[in-house]
Amino acid sequence: MRNLLLKLSWFWNRLRCMSIPELAYRAQQAGGAWCDRIGLTGARKVPVANDLSRLHYEFDVGDRLDTAAYCLAADQLLLGKVNVFALHPADIGSPPVWNRDPLTGVNAPLLFGQHMAITDKPLVGDIKYLWEPNRHLHLVTLAQAYHLSGEQRYLDGVALHISTWLAQCPYLMGVNWSSSLEPAIRLINWSLTWKLIGGANSPLFNGPQGEQLKQAWLASVYQHCHFVSSHLSAHSSANNHLIGELVGLYLGASTWPAWAESAKWQAKAKQQLVMQMQLQNSGDGVNLEQAIAYQQFVLDFFLLCGLAAKQSGDDFPPAYWQRMESMMSFLSSIMDLAGHVPAFGDADDGFAVRLHTDPSFSPYQSLLATGAVLFNRADFAAKGQHFDEKSLWLLGQQGAQVFDQLSAQVLNAPIHLQPTRLDFPAGGYHIMGDAFGTENEIRLVVDCAPLGFLGIAAHGHADALSLVLSFGGQELLIDPGTYAYHAAQPWRDYFRGTSAHNTVRIDELDQSVSGGRFMWLLKARALCSQMSRSALESVFVGSHDGYQRLDDPVSHQRKIHFDVATKKILVTDDLSCSGQHLVEIFWHFSADSDVSIVDDVVLVRQSGKQLRLCMPSGKLTPSLFKGSEQPILGWSSPSYDVKYPSCTLRWKGVIKGSITFDTVLELSSL
């Protein structure tokens, strides 16, 4: 009964987030699914593919890559060992069992995909773990190993994985046909795999069996393109899913221009991608889902599609590339000396492709390394630090040479280590600090952004006026991350809630009101009223209205003052109200930090750096939490489905009427 009530509550909340046009669209979508199911629509009959043997592909990587590392990674894949989130490795079988969740072992049935309840764990297991291997990022690794070594076993591995997937995941059946984003990401990785093995002329397709595999694969490509084109996300779901779907459709149509529909699919995808680049990313380069990991995700989509278009002579307009450069500039500005970026918003370790074998690979630095070459930006090269494997596969040896030249500019002119922009008012973020790009760098990033994108703000966190702080590349104040989407509800609620961020919570309520795991009903609105800078200081003032909904409304204004000479940060929280309220101020520290309280002064030490926090007024009582489950506090999540105990400081007390709290943060080197 409880589960039924929860489902009904979610359904009602979801309806409340929809406009009348969206309700009409959803009804049409439901009707379309039934038409697909009974065969009135869809692509069960596939037209004959045109000859593609005229198309040739080159990857100019020279001898810059470690072939043995790719072969080692591919050998693990041949054994059925694939890294999937917290499973290192997951066993998907050899041959793979594609409809089995490697985390729980649940085998999802081959029911009509669009009607399957993908969050029903007894039915499908953990859908994230099931979907991930089916995106076929690992297929590219097999193809890379073949491309570099020429060894037949890797080509045979590609054949095994493709043929078994086609046999076990027939068109429209099973969870791999339940969401348009999944076939779209498969198309992206199939495109790379196809090109790496030599396209239609690959030895994989020699002989009758090879020809049969090629035709079966091409038929599925057609069905994938048709499905994605017919089921593009819209309205409140038109977020990163729509971008990924359009990129998959573009690459599917342009890699395999084998049917009459291909040109139409390609033009449709291109036209909408040009629009979505502007609609989903602010003019100053911030992705409007307000989630840094999703900024990386969609930026990679845009990049892969843009490069493929350039190479085929179907380039995107200048505005597309200009907005992409702005997105990279934002990442560069929030990245600290050691390459860390804040974990604002949701993160699920989603990648469009995986072109590397290096375990220390940083997707953010990789994007900047690629962007350095594309946009002739020495400052991007400084942050990217080196021309990584992924950048080499995408831009070749010529790109590596350009990167080396830009890196030389950085050595000769350290000005390139300075951020080119500190304020992103449209996106809602501001950077404060000093000595950028040096061993004494202080970088503080303030979040005064909207909650998220569109009606449900699916991937936003209730983190208004929070901040993160690094000193000399050491993360001292952090955003704890996301943990997992489908974990027990209290964990999902915690990591996206206000208490998991460096800000103020009132009456143990989040700033915004949740309606489900990917849905917010009432959204706090944040406003920056001052951001001023001089050689001596910088001052931020912002507020939000999230607690105006209370019977006794509470206004929260936060002022952050950074004194350049003393390296002292004063955080002033003004709370305006009439009645009595419980107030909590949270500070979250890196899992690597040593944290202690001495006479109500909090000392945080990490790798030769120290942060001292105190509240001179003594109006609130400090407590430290580490790995607490009652209440849930003192956790950080560095990657999806992984969490570690880490220290959290909570100042707590009861107020009556308006009040001001000052928190002093002092930085020093040990």
Automatic annotation (TrEMBL):
GO terms for molecular function: lyase activity. One of its GO terms (cellular component) is periplasmic space. Keywords: Lyase, Periplasm, Signal. It is found in: Periplasm. Residues 422-610 form the Heparinase II/III-like C-terminal domain. It comes from the Bacteria. Residues 126-349 form the Heparin-sulfate lyase N-terminal domain. Its main location: periplasm. This is Alginate lyase family protein. It comes from Undibacterium parvum.
